[in-house]
Design brief:
CATH superfamily: Ferritin, core subunit, four-helix bundle
CATH class: Mainly Alpha
Helix content: 55-70%
Bound molecules: fe (ii) ion
Number of strands: 0
Oligomer: single chain
Order of helices and strands: HHHHHHHHHHHHHH
Radius of gyration: 20 Å
CATH topology: Ferritin
Distance between the termini: 54 Å
Largest sheet: none
Length: about 325
């Protein structure tokens, strides 16, 4: 019989969060933008159990074979020997991996926004963040159901995503949790959801994605509204801490899309596959496109400083700086 501690270790992991919880005794509205976002969030709630048609059949034939085919067709590809049927199976695994990471990221967002309710100093932000807690719970519900009912397989959290979630949850400064979750993770998620929405032929995932994207657009707008002007008032030393955080987060997010776990599960040479995916021009472009909202949103909150600009240039994502911000 397993002990309780073994059971918990199998099913849970812990992060040590330490931050001051803040009561606000000023209940008068201070920020009309947040008041409007809060009102919009209340009107935009949906029910993952009843507003989604879960009777839709999901099969591998719905997958877009294009992305996987570019892997097989690349020069020196370790995927070159795969048959069409094996490629479809690999695409199915890749889909499960992608949605699994969405699921784990959504749980990270659930913990982060619950923390924001406690830690942010003003009441308008607490009320809005409370609606986001419900949104993220719904996103956890919807992606878990999709994985368990439709794909019948899942993956553990990717180490790069786990590391980023750990960093933003354990930092005691409330603005770093905002910066990590509302700006970095959610801006990237918006672009990833947009890519899925445009490329998948699978009707259920398209429906879920469009619903989730509408919520996420509000979340990013909340982050931008809350952080605009905050960094202008910091000392150079304080701001540099955030610059370093943004750049490390960008690097972790870029590396989380190498899908090593998929290649391992499929019995392919993981080192070779990872190296190929890292350098394959189509994959490089895909990973870079995921930053199309991160970069303008970082600029919008005043953090595209010379230091960050240099690091983003090194990562090949600075070209997105002229794209429109999310709010
Ligand atoms: Fe979410
Ligand atoms: Fe979100």
């Amino acid at each position: 019989m397993r002990s309780t501690s073994q059971f918990v270790a199998d099913r849970c992991s812990t992060v040590a969060m330490s931050f001051p919880g803040v009561f606000s005794w000023d209940y008068e509205h201070q920020d009309e933008h947040l008041v409007r976002l809060y009102d919009k969030a209340k009107r935009s709630q949906w029910n993952a159990a009843t507003d989604i048609d879960w009777s839709v059949e999901v099969t591998p034939s719905h997958l877009d074979p294009g992305v996987m085919a570019t892997l097989r067709d690349g020069v020196g590809s370790p995927f070159a020997h795969l048959s069409d049927a094996e490629l479809v199976e690999l695409g199915w695994e890749s889909q499960a991996w992608t949605v699994s990471q969405f699921l784990h990221g959504e749980q990270g967002a659930l913990l982060a926004t619950a923390k924001l309710v406690d830690a942010v100093p003003d009441e308008d932000a607490k009320l809005y963040a409370a609606t986001q807690v419900v949104d993220e719970a719904r996103h956890v519900e919807v992606y878990h159901r999709y994985l368990s009912d439709k794909l019948d397989r899942s993956y553990p959290i990717n180490v790069h995503l786990q590391s980023l979630l750990h960093d933003l949850l354990t930092d005691s400064r409330w603005d770093v949790t905002y910066l990590g979750m509302q700006i970095m993770v959610e801006s990237l998620a918006l672009a990833a959801f947009g890519f899925i929405y445009q490329t998948t032929n699978e009707p259920l995932l398209r429906t879920i994605t469009s619903r989730v994207m509408a919520d996420e657009a509000r979340h990013v707008a909340f982050g931008i509204a809350s952080l605009t002007g905050v960094y202008d008032e910091m000392t150079e030393h304080e701001r540099h801490d955030r610059e370093v955080f943004v750049c490390e987060a960008a690097e972790l997010m870029r590396d989380r899309f190498l899908q090593r776990e998929v290649w391992e599960r499929a019995g392919l040479p993981a080192d070779q596959c990872e190296a190929f995916v890292r350098g394959n021009p189509v994959q490089v472009q895909f990973r870079s496109l995921l930053f199309s909202k991160v970069v303008p949103n970082v600029k919008r909150i005043g953090l595209l400083t010379p230091y960050v600009r240099e690091q983003f240039k090194r990562l090949g994502i600075l070209s997105f700086e002229s794209e429109p911000a999310s709010a």
